[in-house]
Write a structure and sequence with these properties.
Length: about 425
């Protein structure tokens, strides 16, 4: 399955767009300087180096505030990055035709970058408030949101949530119902206010009156300590600027400047503008979306074609046509292979095989043969009809039990025992 990677961190203003243009211009000048011989630019060697260094500092300084707003420490870190890239350029440029005089400044530039990083760290304490997740004291009309296969219905007020200067989520105060399409059918859940929606999309309408008391209460709920308790392992974490998704054969981690995707097909790491890829990893086509109740355990997360629903009682994960359901010690997996497990009970069928295990009874079908272990005895049946019977019954059992399992009723052991007994009785006819 092939996806194109799309990443939009924010709606860029003119200053940030100019920074991106200067980055591109820097790259062009670097290539021109590298091939200055064939391009007959050797007479302008030093001038090109000066221009490249000036552009390195220019786009770094213009990018200040892209995530957290303009801060003193942000400016210092931008200067540190400028000196670091300059030191790298001057160091390696010595082997590529740069004058010895300029090449000798590489160490000085690197020393400046180290000192400025230390200064930036010390100054960052004055900017700590800029790094908080904050619910703004502004309210907008909310009348629902459409995210494709995931929809929010209801009415109320939506309050923007910001991390620095970046809008990362909305908190909804009102009547909200989430609806998601899955291979199992439509999942609907009425959510209790307040509800947070981690998305950069605008889901609100016109401005309306805000409730300062609500804003104050919710600000205490949206901080990371309140949302994700220390010591509790979370398969999904979404804070807008930090995203973690761990699923069946898929891991996705996104930090402001780092992204990691790991799948059975390969993995990719992105650090700033650099990408390192091994194999052919599946790439999510869109930004991760999370809808979460702040007072309760419900959370729905979508990343690409994957959908994960978590509650205090169960979790459902959808990957294309594959669905995995877990509740306590019970699990259900539907896909090319379907399986059902609960304690000492397991039923699986797919790829020409089937196996039913309940207490001391085991029935398996494979390659046209059926093996039965019951009452301390083992039987083997080589009959196409018996093989087909076990395959059909195993599938029927999973489908029959899955409906009640997903509704939260759990495994119906009485019904399962009856189905297995009926199958054993029919198989005994083949044993004779």
């Amino acid at each position: 399955m092939s996806f194109s990677w799309k990443y939009h961190a924010h709606r860029e203003g003119p200053r940030f767009k100019l920074a991106e243009y200067l980055k591109a211009l820097t790259a062009i000048l670097l290539i021109a300087w590298l091939f200055k011989g064939p391009l007959r630019l050797e007479a302008y060697n030093d001038q090109l180096v000066y221009a490249i260094v000036a552009l390195l500092f220019a786009f770094e300084l213009l990018s200040v505030g892209k995530w957290f707003g303009v801060t003193i420490s942000g400016i210092v870190f931008a200067l540190a990055k400028g000196f670091f890239w300059t030191s790298v350029f001057l160091f390696f440029g010595g082997w590529l035709g740069m004058s010895e005089t300029l090449h000798n400044y590489a160490g000085t530039a690197f020393a400046y970058s180290v000192v400025l990083v230390i200064a930036g760290i010390l100054l960052a304490k004055f900017d700590e408030r800029k790094f908080d997740i904050k619910v703004e004291g502004k309210a907008y009309e909310f009348s629902g949101a459409d995210f494709g296969e995931v929809k929010l219905r209801g009415t109320g007020k939506a309050y923007p949530v910001k991390f620095g200067r970046k809008n990362v989520a909305w908190v909804i105060d009102g009547s909200v119902e989430v609806e998601a399409e899955t291979p199992l059918g439509r999942i609907t859940k009425r959510l209790l206010s307040p509800v947070i929606v981690w998305t950069e999309e605008r889901i609100a309408g016109r401005k309306t009156s805000a409730d300062p008391g609500f804003v104050s209460r919710v600000n205490d709920l949206v901080n990371p300590e309140g949302l994700y308790k220390k010591g509790k392992r979370e398969g999904v974490v979404d804070l807008g600027f930090i995203k973690v998704y761990e699923g069946e054969g898929f891991e996705y981690v996104k930090l402001p400047f780092i992204e990691v995707i790991e799948t059975p097909g390969g993995e990719e790491v992105k650090i700033g503008p650099m990408r390192f890829r091994e194999g052919n990893p599946e790439m999510p086509p869109a930004e991760m979306l999370t809808i979460r109740e702040l007072h309760n355990g419900f959370q729905l997360t979508r990343v690409g074609e994957r959908l994960k629903v978590q509650t205090d009682e169960y979790s459902i994960e959808v990957d294309g046509e594959r669905v995995t359901y877990r509740s306590g010690n019970e699990s259900l997996s539907l896909g090319e292979t379907v399986s059902l497990r609960s304690g000492d009970i397991s039923v699986s069928v797919g790829r020409g095989r089937a196996k039913i295990r309940i207490e001391d009874v085991v029935i398996s079908a494979r390659e046209g043969k059926v093996r039965i272990r019951a009452g301390g005895r083992t039987y083997t049946v080589e009959d196409p009809e018996a093989y087909r019977l076990v395959m059909e019954k195993a599938k029927e059992i999973v489908e029959e039990q899955s409906a009640e399992l997903i509704e939260g009723l759990g495994i119906d052991r009485t019904l399962l025992n009856r189905r297995v007994k009926e199958l054993l009785d029919e198989l005994m006819g083949y044993i004779g």
